[in-house]
Amino acid sequence: MALSKDPQVGERIFESIAPSIYGHMDIKRAIALALFGGQAKNPGEKHRLRGDINILVCGDPGTAKSQFLKYVEKTAHRAVFTTGQGASAVGLTAYVQRSPVTREWTLEAGALVLADKGICLIDEFDKMNDADRTSIHEAMEQQSISLAKAGIVTSLQARCSIIAASNPIGGRYDPTLTFADNVDLSEPILSRFDVLCIVRDQVDPVNDELLASFVVSSHVKHHPNAGEDETQIELPRCSSIRQVPQDLLKKYIQYARERVHPKLTTADQDKLAKMYADLRRESTVTGSIPITVRHIESVIRLAEAHAKMHLRDYVSSDDVNMAIRIMLESFIETQKYSIMKSMRGLSDLTSGI
């Protein structure tokens, strides 16, 4: 509770995500919000609206994509890690097998069912077969898995966030092409991800020097035979904001997920409607990823997760602004380089709201 009263608690948590990875603040923000999650709803007990946030991280090799997934596996209270190459449709959803003892058909849960109320991490997402990838469509939106096999007709719960990492076509991301041309993923599955994070390995002498310094210092500090002076080395960081200890962060995330259920007010309705209309217009003009109604729900989920991070009972305008900022950043990153450059001005304006 003392941590939630810190006015900089949001920035401190963002800074504490994957402290062994330098930079990539946009991915850290998205992962932090996915760990807290939004608020699931069940209008009229007829159908569920998911509260879990799905993230796709795509980019050049050697940009710590898999390291982020491994960090989430260690930090989340329940996480299942799998790779696209080693995962099949039945391995992700559920399968039926005959019991060697009773000779009766039994139902075995897959990764998404085992990750219920937690996070499912899929590395090398682009290496999955199209048929296997199609099998998780229902799990990503309706958060259930329906089966009709060997006389067993049932539906299993799969209420989990999905954080996936993939490589672009040809290995490296081409900024002269749109996101849809860079990845071998269909539109139905792309629309189910709330946040798309693009990681580019760009040459920047100043940043490269800081990154090299961070890696060397990290190796010296974490050596198993490091002396007392070496373990006290301060790693160079992007900002001077104090980090939250990892043990406390795990407890804080668990407490917020279980106890805090923020409500959305109608105050920011106009702002959300205007943002959706503007993004729809821009996506039609630029021919990038299509913006659908799911993206409004994504913004609401991100705002609720940000409110949950501050242990608030109601979603404030700050939460909505942060959600819109993340959504805009995600949308701009997926554009061609020339369009992205012209859109940066809009992003700078909204970040100062």
User: Kindly, what is the distance between the CA atoms of the first and last residues, rounded to a whole number of angstroms?
Assistant: 28 Å
Rg for CA atoms: 21 Å
- Average predicted local confidence, pLDDT: 80
Would you report the number of β strands? 9
Q: What is the molecular shape?
A: globular
**What proportion strand?**
5-15%
Fraction of residues in H or I helices: 40-55%
The tally of helices reads 16
Low-confidence stretches: none
Could you describe the largest sheet, including whether it forms a barrel? 5 strands, parallel
In N-to-C order, the SSE pattern is: HHEHEHEEHEHHEEEHHEHHHHHHH
Largest sheet, order of strands side by side? 2-5-8-1-9
Query: Which structural class should the secondary elements be placed in?
Result: alpha/beta
Could you characterize the architecture of this molecule?
It is globular and about 65 Å long. The protein is built from 16 helices and nine strands. It has helices at residues 9-16, 25-36, 65-75, 89-92, 111-114, 130-134, 137-141, 179-182, 187-190, 205-221, 228-231, 246-259, 269-286, 293-309, 317-333, 337-351; strands at 55-59, 79-83, 94-98, 105-109, 119-123, 144-149, 152-157, 161-166, 195-199. Helices cover 45% and strands 14% of the residues. The chain has a five-stranded parallel sheet. A two-stranded antiparallel sheet has the order 3-4. The longest helix is centred in the last third of the chain and has 18 residues, at 269-286. The two termini are 28 Å apart. 35% of the residues are buried. It is α/β, with parallel strands linked by helices and 353 residues long.
